[in-house]
Specification:
Layout lengths: L3 H5 L6 H4 L22 E5 L26 H14 L3 E5 L9 H10 L3 E6 L6 H9 L4 E5 L5 H7 L4 H14 L4 E7 L7 H5 L1 H5 L3 E6 L16 H20 L5 E5 L3 H13 L1 H14 L8 E4 L5 E2 L17 H6 L4 H7 L7 H5 L3 H4 L4 H8 L20 H6 L1 H4 L7
Parallel strand pairs: 1-2, 1-8, 2-3, 3-4, 4-5, 5-6, 6-7
Antiparallel strand pairs: 8-9
Helix pairs in contact: 5-7, 11-12
């Protein structure tokens, strides 16, 4: 996650995380990405059941609940372990988490244990009563996913009227004094709605917007061809930068972030280097503390049946199950070659990623995206939109890694 507004506009400095010793147990939520201990933010897909049918769903949600889902009591044991381990955030996701009747009970249980709790939702089920219960349960944030304006969103979500229901859910959160923000996954179907979506922030007084790059997983894996071209991605990121500056200069208290492509951080640093070189060193330091992609390090996923994954998109490789072993033990066990590799990956990266001079800022980006295209976990991330020159690859290195800069091969 890249804090575009704070970094681009100088709203965060290196002294801010240093004030807390970069200790995740002491830092406020907005600075957690700069912590030095990198205890994992845990995404829990607490159910596969959902009331919508989104075409890019990474979990391939269903109409009915999974009879093998983690029970309330099992969830309490899981939360106890997370609290003891020091996980700073538990994100309740789905499917649609508001469908599970014990959401508020478990959210309060986690919050009472000192864990920051977050809900990731499609927003359509956030009635006034639900918003009140979210507040009472102590959830610190609600992220509402939309995929464009009006019909664009509704086609993605598989339900007419889903857009307006999501907006009403956001309004209900605001009225209940629950911090809420937008989540938008950008792709060929909706990138033309990007600016209008960001403009919902001032029009609906929504304080936060997280813009996600497409990751090929679940039903989303069928959308490889629907990802943006590198030029379209760069143009979209330019727009994001422009809107962040626009809101900041107007004194509007809105924050824009991007997720799932740490190329954005490198591109932001290069932008600052050109426009405000006196700030470049500090921005570079913050991005280095951010650490780039954190799959298997600072982000984890637990499935609805208890399987532990490197992140929420890598569901084809489980490291263990919390029904058989504590999450904390699974997470720290590097006997699995993939877990060991993700935790110390720089020496394993190939091609452009291995040769990139900004590796400390992006950490090789998304390995699951590389695997989806090249059938090789350590191949370059195909979503990096910077040129060889921009990432510091010399001609002899380009020749040595031509295997991975050639046209995408057929997946085996």
């Amino acid at each position: 996650m890249i804090g575009i507004t704070k970094l681009l506009c100088g709203a965060v400095t290196a002294s801010d995380p240093l004030r807390y010793g970069r200790d995740s147990s002491k830092m406020p939520a907005e600075l957690l990405r700069y912590s030095k201990d990198k205890k994992p933010i845990v995404v829990w897909n607490m159910t596969r059941k959902c009331n919508l049918h989104c075409i890019h769903c990474y979990i391939e949600a269903k109409d009915n609940p999974d009879p093998e889902e983690i029970s309330t009591q099992e969830a309490r044991i899981f939360i106890d372990d997370l609290a003891e381990f020091g996980a700073p955030v538990l994100l309740f996701s789905g499917g649609e988490p508001l469908i599970r009747e014990d959401l508020f009970e478990l959210g309060k249980y986690a919050a009472d244990k000192g864990i920051r709790t977050v809900i990731s939702t499609n927003g359509t089920l956030i009635t006034k009563d639900a918003a009140r219960r979210i507040k009472e349960a102590g959830f610190s944030y609600v992220g509402v996913s939309i995929d464009g304006i009006g019909d664009t969103n509704d086609k993605f979500r598989g339900k007419k009227g889903a857009f307006q229901e999501a907006i009403e859910g956001i309004k209900n959160c605001r009225k209940a004094d629950v911090k809420v923000g937008l989540r938008f996954t950008i792709n060929k179907h909706n990138f033309k709605d990007l600016e209008d979506t960001m403009n919902l922030m001032p029009s609906e007084d929504i304080p936060r917007c997280c813009i996600y790059h497409l990751v090929y997983a679940g039903r989303g894996s069928k959308m490889k061809e629907q990802d943006l071209t590198h030029e379209e991605t760069r143009n979209s990121v330019d727009l994001i930068f422009r809107k962040a500056k626009e809101f900041y200069k107007k004194g509007l208290p809105y924050e824009i972030l991007t997720v799932d492509n740490h190329t954005d951080g490198v591109y932001l640093y290069q932008t600052i280097l050109k426009e405000e070189p006196e700030r470049a060193r500090e921005v570079h330091q913050l991005l280095e503390w951010n650490g780039g992609n954190s799959s298997g390090i600072g982000i984890a996923c637990v499935g609805n049946q208890g399987s532990v994954y490197a992140d929420q998109f890598w569901r084809h490789h489980s490291f263990g199950n919390i029904r058989k072993r504590k999450f904390s033990e699974i997470w720290m066990d590097t006997s699995d070659p993939l877990m060991a590799g993700l935790k110390d990956r720089k020496k394993l990266l190939k091609g452009r990623c291995g040769a990139c001079k900004f590796l400390n800022l992006c950490n090789g980006n998304f390995r699951v995206r590389a695997e989806a295209i090249y059938d090789d976990v350590w191949a370059p991330d195909p979503a990096c939109y910077l040129s060889d020159k921009e990432i510091g690859i010399e001609e002899e290195v380009e020749n040595a890694v031509s295997l991975f800069t050639a046209e995408t091969p057929e997946k085996k």
